[in-house]
Amino acid sequence: MKKTFLIIxxxxxxIMACQQELPKNGIVVISPELAEIIVKIAGDGQIIGVTEECxxxxxxxxxxxxxxxxxxxxxxIALLRPEYVITSSLEQEGVAKDLEKLGIKVISIYPKSIDExxxxxxxxxxxxxxxxxxxxxxxxxxxxxxxLKNYQPKNPKKVFVEIYNDPIMSVSAESYIGxxxxxxxxxxxxxxxxxxxxxxxxxxxxxxNPDVIITTYPGIDKDTIKNRKGWEHINAVKNNxxxxxxxxxxxxxxxxxxxxxxxxxxLRSVIYE
Amino acid sequence: MNRRFSLAILLFIVLVVVYSxxxxxxxxxxxxxxxxxxxxxxxxxxxxxxxxxxxxxLLNNPLAEPYILGVSSGAALGSIIAGLVGAxxxxxxxxFMGALLSIVIVWALSSRGGYLDKTKLLFSGIILGMFISAxxxxxxxxxxxxxxxxxxxxxxxxxxxxxxxxxxxxxxxFAISIFFxxxxxxxxxxxxxxxxxxxxxxxxxxxxxxxxLKVFIVGSILTGVSVAYAGIIGFIGLIIPHFVRLxxxxxxxxxxxxxxIYGASFLMLCDLLAFNLTVIELPVGIITSFIxxxxxxxxxxxxxx
Lengths: 273, 305
What we know:
The complex is a heterodimer. By secondary structure, chain A is of the alpha/beta class. Chain A has two domains: 2-130, Rossmann fold (3-Layer(aba) Sandwich), CATH 3.40.50; 158-272, Rossmann fold, CATH 3.40.50. Chain A has twelve helices and twelve strands. In chain A, helix 2 (32-42) crosses helix 5 and helix 5 runs antiparallel to helix 6. Chain B is mainly α. Chain B has 13 helices and no strands. Chain B has helices at residues 2-21, 27-58, 71-84, 91-110, 118-142, 147-155, 164-186, 188-194, 198-204, 208-230, 236-247, 252-276, 284-304. In chain B, helix 1 (2-21) packs parallel to helix 12 (252-276), helix 2 (27-58) packs parallel to helix 7 (164-186) and helix 4 packs antiparallel against helix 5. Classes of the chains: A alpha/beta, B mainly alpha. Chain A binds chain B through residues 69-71, 91, 164-169, 193-195, 198-199, 201-203, 206-207, 218-220, 224, 227-230, 233, and chain B through 23, 25, 28-29, 31-34, 36, 83, 85-89, 91, 144-145, 148-149, 152, 157, 159-167, 275, 278-281.
């Protein structure tokens, strides 16, 4: 009898020891744009896990990978015992909910405009305890943007941004890419769309006659666009003003990061120079 | 009889005019964008309902439709793979290759043992279709970024953007398809006899196996063309032939041409709605089912009385 009690007592000790909370520290970021911002303001020291898409700055490539943007490995994240997991809310809402069920603190940030990107920087500054760096970065970025806003093109050009070809899709002025194109001085031919990222009609594109075409997805080249039936009279096609991801790195304009300044400058140079 | 045909053709012409006139901008855009879309819509509508009417007899199954023999899944898989590897312009070609491959597999499976049996044909088609659907689901899961592309193949999209060479290939496919449709029409008598049963047909002198094989291959090639360009547009191939059989008695000589005309008209109507109903263009496959199902149920109900 005594023996049994002793065994039970010892077993429960072991179980209790296992349940004891290990200290949590570090951040897992599963959104590439937020990872970029964190490294910019706080360095990579606090980051203990990222996703495959987190490719900038290069230092992130050496971090533990917890899956890719759409499919993260929850077990791997749980094993890393992060203090926070930082997600983007667009397609990651489900993941965020699952992580919360595992008792992991989740912070979802999805900047949809430049102002929201500033808010994201502030929030990430608080999380990483680098508020001052965040503030400094924001004021620098604001200066850069004010400078960008001063630009007044002599002959404003009409721009068509193609984010997918089948079905053919574009962006509205409300979208992130749309606002950057505007900042670059281009006139978006689809300022108003039902959704920020939406299907558009082939007929409307030809009718709008854009001066510049910018594509943001892989697998398409200039000749494919030039050879589309009915596109030969579009100004951009006639003047060879078609730019693909080889000309404009999509990460600079699709992600909401400090690198957008670079992106806007690049857009401006392809549109106007 | 003649009145039915005139009515169908009148409706067809009215829809062509409406389709062309709505939001008309200028002749250049009409010729280069609207007209190709119109031709594609008409072709797909004709193929799906014509082939549907033939397959229903071929398989002696009122639920048969052009997609039932796995061809559509094969074509869809081909198109999707082309899109995923970035070979967008080859998408119709890949789609068509996928269709041919699945035709060969289904045919090989169902003709084992020497006799092309309709039950075996149906089983092999359905099983292959399921297997390929699983592959498509797998691809969808792995390549989440390209879900848009995969969905538009699975839900149907008549807004295919042609490049110049593709356009000539399409015109060629159009001509070939019309030729094949005429061929299917020419088999109407034999198919009528087939409805009396394989043995009866055989005894009258119809080579049932040969007939079934020819009609299966021609129908499948046609379906492959339609999926390659427009994705999977459900329901037309099932509902239009039945709709026509409610109008005329089940004589394939009347059912087939009427199905072809009504199929084209119905798809034009659906695409008009898909294009203009909401600000966002809807996948046409959704519209065909939305309209088709209630109308068909209504027709069934009034016929009972």
